[in-house]
Structure formats: C-alpha cells, structure tokens
User: Fold these one by one.
Assistant:
Number 1:
Amino acid sequence: MTDMIALVPAAGSGSRFGAPSPKQYLQLNGHPLMWHTLATLAAVPAISRVVVVVSPHDEWFDDFEWDLPKLEVLRVGGACRAESVANGLAALDCAADDWVLVHDAARCCLSVAAVERLIAALADHPVGGLLALPVPDTVKRADAEGHVAATVPRNGLWLAQTPQMFRAGLLARALTTGAAADITDEASAIEKLGLRPLLVEGDAQNFKVTYPRDLALAKAILAARGAF
Ligand code: CTP
Ligand code: MG
C-alpha cells in the first residue's frame, strides 16, 4: 500500500507581501494563514501525513499551537521553493512509489473537494499531475512600453496551481536534474524529463496569497465556508 503524503513548502519570506513576518504566519480568521492550508490537507482521508517544510532559521513556527492531526515539521527549507521541496523530499523517509502532493503554504483557500478530484484523476496515472485553471480571460502580450503587441489565443492555456502530485522517487530525480532556481513548479521539472503531467481542473478560490490586497478575499472565502 503506497502512502499519500502532503508536502508543504513554507520557507519563503513573503517579500512581495512585505509584512514583518512571512505571510504564512499572518493571522487569518483566528489562525495563522497556513493553519488553514494544513487543516484542509489533514482533512483529506486519503492523505496519511502532512509535512511542512520551514526554514532552518524560522522564528515563528514554534510560537503557535497548530493542534492538527497528521502534522510533521521539517526545518530544511532552502534558498528557493524547489530547493525547499527537494530538501523536504530527501528528509521525508518515504518509499519511492509513495505519492507526494506538493502544495504552497500560501494557497490557504484550497478545498478538500479539489484535492480529492486530483487524487481520483491520478489514481492509475503513470506520471502524475496538478490542479490548474483554464485561462478565463483574453490574453495580451505587452511590448516594452506597455502597449498591446498581440492577442494570444487562450485555447489550451492553463494556469498552474497546487497541489502537484507525483511519485516521490520520480519527483526527487526531477528536482535534482538542472538548476533549482529555474524550477518554478514540480510539473515543469517532470516535463524536463520528457514526461507529460495531467492537468486536472482546480478552482479560482485556490489562489496564492501574494500581496496584502489578497488577504481580504482569503478571509471572505474562509469565513463563507465556516468550517475552520
Ligand atoms: N517557499 C519555500 N522556500 C523558499 C521560497 C518559497 O518553501 N525558499 C514557499 C513559500 O513559503 C510559499 C510557496 O513556496 O508557501 C510559494 O512561494 P511564494 O508564494 O513565492 O512565497 P514567498 O517566496 O514567500 O513570497 P515572495 O516570492 O513574495 O518572496
Ligand atoms: Mg517566492
């Protein structure tokens, strides 16, 4: 029986958000922001472990009462997201064919239903895949002065989200092939091996809190759910 493990990189500094502490620790509806992320992953019955990767220099994690089932912390975060994920994978102590669902700590409005859709779609898949959203708007390419240079057909374009779900052994190999700083998501590392991850439709609520203006929307979504 293979395990299904959620791996949550949370070693970023939140430079675009610009708060005194990293955005994953900001208070949101009575909990640190990433508590909501971890609680959703822990609430998925098929997931047996929820492993959060923080920086070795993290000063905040221990200040909070997380009080969540399945939770483990690894203090092995790296200089970029891909390095944090690769270090976490190396420290995980899991089997090569275990499934790993990598999910951004800052995507705190993830729903259990979306995770279960991803897991169901990939049950018999040889490679793995990711939640993603078909681009809903008309897409423009800008020139150097900020004018429209072209309208790009949106047909076939998707916005990558997380979780991104791959076998632990394959993902570790993908992330250590090539420079970590050039890897913006797990799927792109898998693609570089010549493999084709499956796109599974996510939802717009699963956005990444990046700027201060994003917090009001996250608050409203979580409050409307009422569960946490
Ligand atoms: N992350 C990480 N290790 C890093 C950088 C990022 O684990 N060295 C994590 C972040 O904590 C976050 C996720 O990767 O949960 C997505 O990254 P992003 O939203 O870019 O967060 P930050 O890098 O913290 O933000 P910024 O880019 O604005 O500095
Ligand atoms: Mg970043």
Note: The CA atoms of residues 118 and 200 lie 6 Å apart.
Number 2:
Amino acid sequence: MCLITSNEDLINSLKKAKDNKMQTVGFVPTMGYLHDGHLSLIKKAKEENDIVVVSVFVNPTQFGPNEDFDRYPRDIERDYKIAKEAGADIVYNPEVEDIYPKGASTFAVVDGDITKKLCGASRPNHFKGVTTVVNILFNIVMPDRAYFGQKDAQQVIVIKKMVRDLHMKVDIVVCPIVREADGLAMSSRNVYLNQDERKQALVLNLALAEAQKKCKQGNTKVTDLKAFIKETIEAQPLAQIDYVEILDAQTLDEIKEIKKQALAAVAVKFGKTRLIDNVFIDS
Ligand code: AMP
C-alpha cells in the first residue's frame, strides 16, 4: 500500500500489473474526505480486482466560480489511512499541475440534454470538468474497471455515455447509495451542515422514499409525485430547492407517467450547502 503523488511513480507502480495481463486494476476516483460511501466502492473494487487505485483529487474544473472549491474538506493523511483499511493498494493524490499540464486546453465533453438538465442546469460547466478529469485519470491509471456511486446518478449516466461514445476500454461499475443510520445520503459536504440544517436535510430521503411508496401504491403521475416531493421538502424552513425531477432512469428523458424504472432526483440547498439525493421508482 502506498501514497503516490507523481504520475510517473503511479505509472511505474502499475507497470508490473499491466505487463502481467492476469492482474486487473480497479479504480475509484474521489475528491477525498472519504466516508463509508467511498469505502463501499473501494471494497467492491477490491473484491473484483487484483490492484485497487483510489485517486484523491479535488478537481478545480468541475467547480463553478462561486462554489466551494477552496473550502472543500481535505485531509489526505486521514484518507490514506481509511483507504488502506478498506483494501486500497495505491492512493494517488496528484497536484493540479499533474492533471492539467501548463497550457492544457483540451476537454472531454458529453454534449446534449443529459449534461444540461438536473445538476447541469445550475452548474453549467460541471460535467465538462467531470468528464475531462475522469478521461485524464483513466488515461493515467488505465483501469480495467472503474467504480462510481449511484449517489451521483447523473454523473453515472454521463460517464457511461462518454465511455460508450469514445470506445473506452473500461467497465463502469455502479454501487448503491450509502446512507447514514438516519437516512441522509453520505457526502463529504455533510460536514458543512450545522445542527438544524443536518436535521432538516433528512427530508430529502424521506420525501423520495415516500414518493417511491406512493408510486408502488398506484400513484404514477409524475406531476403529482413531483408536487408531493416539493411540498414535503418545502415544509422544512431551511430548505431551498434547486430541482425536483422525475425522469427516465436510463436516458433522463422527460416522462409523464411512471411505466418503467424512473429516477427521482433532488438538489436542495441548506444554507450554503447544496445536497443531492435520488431514488429509483417504479410502479
Ligand atoms: P466524490 O468524492 O464526492 O467525488 O465521490 C467519489 C465517488 O464516490 C463518486 O462516484 C460518488 O458517486 C461516490 N459516492 C459519494 N457518496 C456516496 C454515497 N453516499 N454512496 C455511494 N457512493 C458515493
């Protein structure tokens, strides 16, 4: 197990595994400040691969100008320890210049509606930053499999599309959302929440779970379910809704009625903290 900061060291460390074609590399890209959600990805990667690389990189290009890039929580020593305990073989913690060489001006962009709705609407360049960094990280690590969380549902769909469209030789494995005991989806950003915000943030999971139940009971009209989720969230005085959407789970297309699996997704701000959550629903 080692902590690596330079691309060269990483490539050399992985060379042996790459030369020995029997060894597979599993990759878990993260922005660090690891929690049990990240650990579930690392453990899954360890089950399925010989070598597991976890990257810890707070990627500047996926943050908007007034977002939390500067104050995003960082603690590489803690991350290293936790990742090691979960089974990681290498923690890769590059500097911005290692990822974006001076003068870099090349981006990987997934065009079209899927990057413009949901988080793409309020964070216009977010997915351009995500797909670019994931592309660069894939080129450096060259994993056989890469692990992503369903917590970032739109990110999963966008990355799968990029991998498909660009014929990238990596399998994308999606892991379920890990929640706190009281239902709040784990996130590195949860540390920003004060006590009242933390308490009221539980409404995200509650509203989504209740909508899921309603749908199972035969309430399949999207406008009604969205209205229900909105009202439930708005009942919490600190909640400011960014979006509440119910879309086709595979394509993110608009739907009116839930006939097959749909994705109910929300983004809500509590104070300065923007949280996202989602659930699959079907009748
Ligand atoms: P982040 O460090 O927030 O960029 O997340 C790195 C990876 O961990 C992404 O694929 C996320 O979707 C995943 N992840 C974050 N939180 C959770 C969670 N609560 N459950 C499952 N996966 C998660």
Note: Residues 126-141 form the longest helix (16 residues).
Number 3:
Amino acid sequence: MNKRRGELIVLSGPSGVGKSTVISELLSSRRDIHFSVSFTTRLPRVGEENGVNYNFVSRQEFERMIADDELLEYAEYVGNYYGTSLKIIREQLDQGVDVLLDIEVQGAAKVKERCPEAVLIFLIPPSIEELSRRLHRRNTDAEDVIERRLEKARQECRESIHYDYLVVNDAVVSAAGEIMSILAAEQCRTSKCIHLTQSIVGNE
Ligand code: ADP
Ligand code: 5GP
C-alpha cells in the first residue's frame, strides 16, 4: 500500500484569538503532528523560548534567508518579518508526517498557491470585544500594539472567506475538537485515498 504524504495544515486568525492555546490543546491529543516553528525578527515575549515558540533571528539573517530562497513563505506583520522554513516542512511531509503552520493571511495565501492541497483553517473570535479582552488579558503587548493588532484583525477576518474551514474559538477544547474532526474528514477525501480503491480493483 502507498505511504501517504503528510497533510499540510495552515491555521490563521487574528492575534490574540487563541491560536497558540488551541494548538497546544490539539497537540496534546495529536502528538503525531509536527508543529512548524517559524522564523521571526520580533523580540521574544516573556516565557517564549528560542527554537520552541519561534526561531528568533536578526533582520539581516532573515533577509539572507529570503535571498537564499530558504522560505516556503514569509510576510511582514506589524513591523516584523515572519517566515516558514521550506526544508524542514518538505522533510516532514515526505516522511508522511502531518505539519501544522500557525501563520497570518498573506503567508497562508502563498502556501495555498504553492501547495494547493494544503488545508486552510481560520480561527475566529466569538466577537471583536472578546478579542480585545484576550489581547489585554494576555498582557504581552503595549496599548498601541494592541490597537494596531485589533485594526489588523478586522482586515484579516475579511480574508477568512478564502479558507477551507472556519472555527470559532469560544471554548478551547471545542475548537481543538473541531479541528480534529476537520483533519479526520480530510483523511477520507477520495482524492487522498485513491490507493485504497486501487488495491481492490487494480489499476485498470
Ligand atoms: P494567539 O496565539 O492567537 O495570538 P493566544 O493563544 O496567545 O493567541 O491567546 C491569547 C489570550 O487569550 C491568552 O491569554 C489565552 O489564554 C486566551 N485564550 C485563548 N483561547 C481562549 C478561549 N477560548 N477563551 C478565553 N480565553 C482564551
Ligand atoms: P505573534 O507576534 O502574535 O506571535 O504573531 C503575529 C502573526 O504572525 C500571527 O498572525 C501568526 O500567525 C503570524 N505568523 C507566525 N509565524 C509566521 C510565519 O512563519 N509566516 C507568516 N506568514 N506568519 C506567521
């Protein structure tokens, strides 16, 4: 039987909607999924670790990676670069491992262009007021940064129509559960299971 290639899963959503929180919940049940650690020029927040949350690099190093074509996609977001390593993703997918990216909307559009089979999921907050509360409660950004992130959130939510699935992050466990259901359904797509039919009917 053919070994399947890994699934490329993209999760986007406005800053503070709860992407990291939902991803932790998801990965605690789905330990077989590889979380892609992005490269960024932003400074680490309190509690963030290099190589775990992000690979923190200088602007000069990031621009070298762009020039050497090392990134699957990259984007500038609120004054900083963020990008995904092409080599690491390709290695995991080739080994049949599912890979999860937490990236913003411009990067997600580039991934869909380069990898049309990727599954794009958009996480939305129950309301803009709740998003503002979460950004304030997280207590990691200055008020002007929060304002810029809220403004950007409105633009980003408009882009959600280009995604394959929308998940509301009301309760973390339910949101992670819905993502697991989406992944289970994706595994059963006829186009992805064609080898199962071929093993029964042959290659006629
Ligand atoms: P993101 O990764 O999207 O920027 P975080 O995961 O850092 O967002 O979450 C932002 C804040 O919102 C954190 O303080 C987190 O604990 C909180 N949070 C996340 N999901 C929920 C939820 N479903 N209900 C209430 N608070 C949440
Ligand atoms: P934060 O600074 O809150 O960690 O992330 C800001 C935004 O950058 C989030 O929307 C997050 O999804 C996005 N992001 C994180 N890593 C990448 C990446 O590798 N590429 C792109 N395009 N966006 C990323």
Note: The mean pLDDT is 94.
Number 4:
Amino acid sequence: MKKYQELVHAAIKMRKYSYAPYSHFTVGAALLSKDGNIFTGCNIENAAYSPTICAERVAFFKAISEGEKEFEAIAIVGGKENEKPNDYCAPCGVCRQVMNEFCDGNFKIILVKNENDISIYNLLELLPKGFGSHNLSK
Ligand code: THU
C-alpha cells in the first residue's frame, strides 16, 4: 500500500533526529491518522534518564496536541546509531499503553528493518487484555 510505504520511509528518515547520547540506540516513528496525515517522532533521551521519551510517544503526543484523535497505523524503526537495524524494534510497554488509549485493537503496528523488510501486527496482538478507559467506566 502506497501510504504505508510513505509511512515506513518517514520513520526511517526520523532516526537521524534522534537524541540518544546515553543508549546510542536511535529510533524513528511515523504515525498515520485516519484522515491520512503523518506525524513523526524520534526518541529523546535525558541525563537524568527517566525523562527520556520514546519515538512512538513523541509522534502520538505531537498528533494529539494538533487535534488528531483517530489513528490507523504507526511505523517504527530502531537500532544502534549509525548502523542499519539488524532486528525489528517493537514498542515498549508504556508506548503500547499510550496506543491503547487512543486506538482500537485493529490499529496497525509496522515494525521496520528496512524499506524491503517489514512485519505488521495489530495492537490487540501486542497488548492483549489491556487496561483501558472501559475499566474505569464500570
Ligand atoms: N526506544 C524507543 O524510542 N522506542 C522503542 O520502541 C524502544 C525504545 C528508545 C528509548 C531509549 O531512548 C532507547 O530507545 C533505548 O531504550
């Protein structure tokens, strides 16, 4: 699908903006809204460590803060800085929880090694039985 190719390309491009002087692991993400808009992110680390934020959450928070609320897919690519990834970079648990807040189980998570090597999951596969707003409305 052409839109997914564009998304994968945007995620790969974002790795160069990553600020990762501590882990030297650079991550890029590109989030596709249901309206067809793309929001990008990279990981941003901090000397105090815990303020570090993942590429995926940067992309989500940029989108939410711009008024987007409905999402279709996210492409994620990560690996050692200045190297091509030799593995898929799956989202951490915190990022899966953020996805769960704004997306349904059918939301697509595209793990990217390179333009020709991707693996697609949906959120329900990566976060089964997640805690969400429905738990609080009972
Ligand atoms: N990281 C991400 O940005 N996304 C992921 O899916 C996994 C981990 C970042 C956080 C930290 O800056 C570095 O990668 C190493 O954990």
Note: The mean pLDDT is 97.
